[in-house]
Records
---
Amino acid sequence: MTSWHPDRISVESFMRGELGGSDATRIVKHLVAGCPECQGVARLYYPCARPAAVPGGAERCISSWRGKGGRKVGEIFEDLLPELRSRQADLESEQIDAPGLVDRLAQCPQERRLMLVENSERYQTWGLCESVLERGFAMGPQDPAKALEWTELGVAIARKLSESTYSSELVHDLKARALSYLGNARRINSDLAGASRAFEEASAELDEGTGDELELARLLELKSALLFEYRKFREGFKILDRAIGIHRSSGGEHFLGRALIAKGFQLGELGDPEAAIATLMDGLKRIDIHAEKRLHLAAKHNLVYHFYSAGRYHQALAMVPEVRALHKELGDTVDLVRFKWLEAKIAQGHGELEAAETAFCEVRQFFAESEIPHEVAQVSLDLAILYLRQGRVAELKRLSSEMLVMFSSLGIGREAIAALVLFQQAVEMEKASFGLIRDLAAYLKNARNHPHLPFRPSSSD
């Protein structure tokens, strides 16, 4: 069951046999999944006075519909209505049970969760699978390790779903979604090879599914992020634009907004802040901010960053109070500290150097105490730029020495250590430049997922 919901006119057109192709397939799937509102509209057009047993049920409906156009819709749906009524009651029961089951699973270690899913039919339901997957997906930005556990659990549940209960094609769709979420979770845990395997499996499951283009679009969105990690920008934008096209055609504003925001993030990563700003603003106009509060916050946070990157400091400053309040509302300490870091960058760009230095030092200390080495490195380099700009050579030398000692103790990779040694030597010889610092910052960002990448400085100014 997807979050997509057709409008009443589309359902009515479908029931009159006037709608064909992928739009009709999607509505069949939506009705089979148990939407009471749309089923009510359907019954107005085809009341079922004499229910008949249908071998294959929902699966037969979808299979019969695919490739037959609108001519058979009345006959097929007449057969299916009794099953829909029964399925609706079952799904409502599952949805009522799901939150309590999720709470119980949250109190168990992962091994126990997997055992329950393997052995108890109570933990093998569609409603629980969707709830577990959404929990795992939402955890990704804050706790990648737990996100991976929950998405692995969602995959395990999807693989135990009864195809006779939910229909084979619908189960394949949900398996594809679960594996797409797993690929995303592996990506943010820096397991890029494992992410690639999960996306390949997801594509294979989708080929056996209903043909729902919205499920395909979600897969393409998440897979594009992996391609960007591999620096395959052309391919990544190609499939992300395909997902955006699907959402434009379907009329789902929230999903279109989400895909546009994803594109805005990547345009910013590619170094095009103006394009990122325009795309993020387009996406923000479309999303339901109550449905995905963290997505709304992430988009606003990135919009502030790209205003800063484009040198539009006044616009960045104007948004700071709103975005800071959103961070406090959602209550994630690390994200709030990251926003303080961004505020320090804006202050530096705006010429408020004393305030920027104080904030950089506080943020750096937080990341050091939290043992997040790459963030320590990036904040230290921001501080190095400030010192270099002010000609504070002694502070710059002290900072470079501290960076090397700290990163060695935090277990940063050998290639990154070699890059920091080169930076320290340049500082000691008083040959450090803004270009070298920018190159090192870009390198450390890429080295997070590619630890064997060597450092090759390219700039000198």
---
Amino acid sequence: MIDQLNEKEIMLLVIKYLKEMKKKEFAEIMDELHPYDMAKLYDSLPEKHQHKFLSFLTARQIATLLQELEQEDQHAILQKLGLEKSSQVMDIMENDDLADMLNGLSGEKIEQLLASMKKEESQTVQNLLSYPPDTAGGIMTNRYVWIRNYYTVQEAIDKLRSFAEMAENIYYLYVLDEDKKLVGVVSYRDLLLADTNDKIDDIMFSRVISVNVDMDQEEVAQIIERYDFIAVPVVDHDNHLVGIVTVDDIIDVMIAEANEDIEKLSASGKAIDFDTSAMTATVRRLPWLVLLLFIGILSAKIMSYFEATLNQVVMLAYFLPMIAGMTGNTGTQSLAVVVRGLVSREIDRNTIVRLIWRELGVGMMIGLVCGILIFVIAYVWEGSLIFAMVVGLSLLLTLIIGTLAGTVIPLMLYWLKVDPAVASGPLITTLNDIFSISVYFGTASAFISHLM
């Protein structure tokens, strides 16, 4: 029945069951919903129905619901559930998701919630909370299946069956020695294809690709993308297996990192979404814009030095917006290419040199084409060969400079261990305005006697 209803119809039906206290019919609908759809349904319900909605759910359903919500909504639900019900739910939640949820709470509240949980689960979450949130340790889960290398395939399958329900990922089984050091990995496919009497030692991969517990989450994402893993093991400095990072967590990381880079590229600072208030959005955007304002004043100061040139050849002002705009555009294009490359691949000296030479060539070819076009347009418009040459040559030079600025500035920041995304589009554009004005009026001043 539910597959024939749209979201609004499902919500109205759920509200009807909540009002009429029809828990059985309510449960039938919940059994058909994916956790994401359940979370979306909860979020769309009027606030007056949300508390009863939660009371109709089982602890396991609430656990899956929480894992699909934003942190702010998670904390609100914990408040509604109370300490006793919250502890039941947290004992069921995936430990890595639980650690992420608790990260935004006060230390006192975290201690209170952890104290109410089962001791073993509480200790595991505390261990996860001890790692920085943007590292492999901060995003890993400890719910995996490990085996010994002397197991037979049948023994490994039996253990997998026993722990499959609690494991977050059963595609890989990790082989540990007596000291709990990672010595191999076996895929579920390998088990299916092997004879039940084969030894794990004979079918396992001993060259295990793993990540250190302190590795940055972006590097972990690159490794999973590079090797097409569904999960990657996390080890400490002594090669003891301490957890795994799964691909679903990496997708969240990649989305978060992409959003962060977009915020920096747009010079908007911290996250701003549709629900952000006008005051908050203003506070987050204003610092960058004030900085760019003062940098822009430098452009005006430079123009004042060429006041005499502009007064003598007023027609120069006609092409100034085009020169500045084109320079900013080509710089932003190069910036996007470099930032994307720095995120997706390893960079060495040879790569940087090739990139700079490549972008120099791109700037020269783009500048040459655009310079010739604007030369023709300026000549037809003003009928002055010298004036057309000044505009065309200026555009050629500024496009080369703009392309190189969009390439070199983020590379310099990367070399200085600063996130290159802070070389935002507006910053590159503003700097290129200064370059373009200087080159344009400098070229015009050199030919001022011929322009008069």
---
Amino acid sequence: MASLQAEIWGTQEVAAPSSLLKAMSAAGGIVLLASARGAPVGFAYGFTGRSRDGRLYHRSHAAGVLPQARDSGIGRALKLGQRRRATAQGLDLMVWTFDPGQGRNAHFNLNRLGAIGRRFHRNYYGSRSDLLNKGRPSDRMVVEWHFDEARSRALALPRADAQLLVEVPPALLDPRAPRMITPAYGALRRGLEAAFRQGAVAVDFKAQGYWFASLPEGFPPPVE
């Protein structure tokens, strides 16, 4: 799986070694490999996390699909596979991070899966040289995907009442834009930090940006 990761990211530097993934799987972590016509095309892996107050959840650390296999449903199938495995372990929450400047990922996470954005961190992983992150700060939004039916229902009203709070600069959404677009990232950073300081959560993404809402009273605090 290490070679598949290297092909997706464009470098071996951030690929998790197969020995680590084997140990992670043996210890109860979730390691998935997707294949098409007998060839590997995507992966996902993660481990069990514990919040400061003792709540257990699945922490999805990395997932990716080869360019030629994207938009085929493989990415969604991998996430659903993670959810099935996590549910079988008695977990009802999955957490991961993504680059909030990537509109396609934002749409997938918030709209298609129904996750919510709980926090934002500047340069979360430090400087990276892989194909998808080179030339950009590793800013990340932390999202939570709640499996519990009651919590999913509790999120329905806030989603309906969401308001656009943070617009995404067009330069970040344009695939033809140069990789080094620091001013645009600065604007997005300030907008997200201001929205999260208000106690709101990201519940939707449309072409113009992130839509935020307040969570219902008594909703669990973020685990990270």
